[in-house]
Amino acid sequence: MTVISTTPDAQARTLTVLAEFPAQPKAVWQLWADPRLLERWWGPPTWPATFREHDFTVGGEAKYHMTGPAGERSNGWWRFLTLDEPHALEFEDGFADEQGNPNPAMPTATARVDIAEIPSGTRMTITMRFGSAEDLEKMVEMGMAEGMALAVGQIDEILAAA
Question: Any idea where the Activator of Hsp90 ATPase homologue 1/2-like C-terminal domain is (predicted)?
Fold first, then answer.
């Protein structure tokens, strides 16, 4: 199993996903850099993502939607804050309207992704930091922890096919 843990921490206002892969860090980095690869794993299997924009530069943005089993759509946006290939990236993450504009009625988070080489391959740690414990709780109640685990759980198959 790729995903080792998914840990919400109300005091730190974080949700942390820890996963390990039998691949080199550069291969894991490509999972974030290439929107066609992102579409294969970002979002749970029943809610696949489609990236309409993906400007993978500092200050660049990504706009995407996930499509549910009944055809419903959930829109999201990212704004890349730092990129340190192939070790780490940070981005703002939130819900969006249909044009990809941030939805201020929903919580946003800052995501930090650490990619580290280990003897068996790569350890990836995704830490989502929320503005308040209430925002974290709202996202956990919406199923974010389970959804992230299911999403990251799809990566092994992608890396095996590379």
Answer: 23-159
Residue whose token pair is 């840990």: 7
25 residue type, one letter? P
Task: Confirm if 124 and 28 have CB atoms less than 8 A apart.
Answer: yes
Q: What are phi and psi of 93, to 5 degrees?
A: -140, 135
Q: At what angle do helices 144-152 and 133-141 cross, to 10 degrees?
A: 70
Within 10 A of 70 (CB to CB), how many other CB atoms are there?
6
Question: d(Cα 105, Cα 96) in Å, to the nearest integer?
Answer: 10
pTM above threshold 0.85: yes
Q: Is the Cα dihedral 161, 123, 143, 53 positive or negative?
A: negative
Let me know the angle formed at the C-alpha of 82 by 26 and 159, rounded to the nearest 5 degrees. 25
Q: What DSSP element (H or E) covers 142? A: none
Residues with pLDDT less than 50, the chain: none
CA distance 41 to 146: 14
